[in-house]
Design goal:
Layout: E1 8-9, H1 12-17, H2 22-29, H3 34-38, E2 83-84, E3 90-91
Antiparallel strand pairs: 1-3, 2-3
Bound molecules: iron/sulfur cluster.
Iron/sulfur cluster binds near residues 62, 68 and 94.
C-alpha cells in the first residue's frame, strides 16, 4: 500500500525475494539487515526521498511519482491500475516490467 492505494499484490516469498513495484523496492532497500551487522558488515540504508502526499490533495496519476526513481511523464496521466505482472503478482505501475529489483 502507498498513500492508501494498493501497489503490489502476490505471493509473500516472491515479494520479499524480488519486490516489483518501485515503492516496494525502495521500501525493502531501507530495511536494516541484522545478519550483516552480525558478521561485521556495514550496510548503507537507502532513503526514499520526499514525503508521502497529502491524501486530500493528491496529484493526478501515480501517487508515488514525486518520489520515484523511475518516473516518466506517462506516470502523471492517470492512476495506474493493478495489473497482472508475472505469475500471480499484480503491480500498479505503468512501467512494470521495464525494470527489475
Ligand atoms: S507508475 Fe511511474 S511513478 Fe509510479 S511507480 Fe511506476 S514508474 Fe514510478
Amino acid at each position: 500500500m502507498y498513500a492508501g492505494r494498493k501497489v503490489e499484490e502476490g505471493d509473500v516469498d516472491a515479494f520479499f525475494r524480488a519486490p516489483a513495484h518501485p515503492y516496494s523496492q525502495a521500501l525493502m532497500a531501507s530495511v536494516p539487515r541484522p545478519e550483516l551487522v552480525a558478521i561485521g558488515e556495514s550496510q548503507n540504508l537507502a532513503e526514499i526521498p520526499g514525503t508521502v502526499p497529502s491524501l486530500d490533495r493528491m496529484d493526478p496519476g501515480c501517487a508515488f511519482a514525486s518520489r520515484c526513481a523511475h518516473v516518466r511523464d506517462v506516470c502523471r496521466g492517470a492512476v495506474p491500475a493493478l495489473c497482472k505482472s508475472d505469475g500471480d503478482r499484480k503491480v500498479a505501475c505503468v512501467r512494470a516490467g521495464d525494470f527489475t529489483s
